[in-house]
Amino acid sequence: MSEPPRGGFTRTLRLAALPLGVAGRAAMGAGRRLGGVPAEDVALQLQAATAEQLFTVLGELKGGAMKVGQALSIFEAAMPAELVGPYRAALTKLQDSAPAMPAATVHRVLTENFGPRWESRFRDFDDEPSASASIGQVHRATWRDGRDVAVKVQYPGAGAALIGDFRRLSRVTRLSAGWIPGLDLTPLLTELVDRVEDELDYEAEAVSQRLFAQAFAGDPHVRVPAVVHAGRTVIVSEWLEGTPLSQIIREGSEQERDAAAARYLEFHLSGPQRVRLLHADPHPGNFRMLPDGRLGVMDFGSVDNLPDGLPPAIGWLLTRALLEDADTIVAGLREEGFIRPEMDVDPQELLDVLDPFVDAIRTPTFLFTREWLGSHVERFQNPTSVDFRTGLKLNLPADYMLIHRVWAGGIGVLCQIGGEIPARDILDQGLPGAHFPALETNP
User: Which whole-number Å values give the CA distances from 292 to 234, 289, 296, 306, 429, in the listed order?
Assistant: First the structure.
């Protein structure tokens, strides 16, 4: 494959082709229906073709276009099954794979970072990437000391592509409903723009990865690979052999799903407490299950500083919600800035809004499913519902912005995994401020 197109005009045409392609296929579909083809068959074929175009265009453009696609893949579990079915496979592919850049381009980036004799750093180097994503792709190699390593190479021009794509996607976002039903890209684009510079700085990413690796050294449940070398646009890390989380989502056994979901939730709780950093990129392409049962964690380009760890107010408020202490919850949310002073909120209606966060801790184990998540999303998307109106009265404080995104995305991934886990115990032990009462047992 050739390099990703860099010209703004060319990239704009590719992005515009997404909604335009839908319109063209819809017109053809109408003609086929008139010709006697069943409407259901036409609709399925149209969505399948659109899904394949989504993967191809976003994957080839890389940059911001693919970053948006990967972010969408986290939330596909919340989309209506009858609409998103054909898109699910395409979005999931974007979690850890995409069309690769040519070997000559990879060699050029390695030369820029290591010099013309870059090959002397390695015993061998595989030109075929093992994974590719929005900003870079990963190659397997053997370092000169014999260690198996993963070499992450940043795409040339990734920074300009990211910023430019976000601008172009903003222009076509009003058409997004044509190629992914019922989805508003505007808030997602706004949040992603704020993280651009962090993800492009591989040297800063290496610092974060080293901090995580040190904090989780010897941990029985999590492994973070050591950084072997870091340059401006290349990171070399120890190789992690294991099963990608995206593969477990596609075809994992019940046991594999349960183990992956438990390790995934534990990591997102323990990271901020041990490292005082939040791993802010929860999509499945950054995780894999290792043969020894640990969760391998990769890609530390998007992190957030949490000097005091997760706010204890989260665990305390979740405990009060479990106890259905509505008045105390309203007072606590006001104090944290989730409810503005001038806003009047009914305490009992607020309890209903918190249901998605409380469901998982009402029983010893909880099975996260797409159906469960979809039922809650449907409640909050109905403008005539009490949940919708109450949700509009809530505010998201700046200090909680990225925490909320990781929690929302993490729940989406847990529902893709479909594992049954002791979420109550995991949250009780790992969430600061949480102190859940003992469950009642039947005699």
Answer: 28, 8, 10, 30, 23
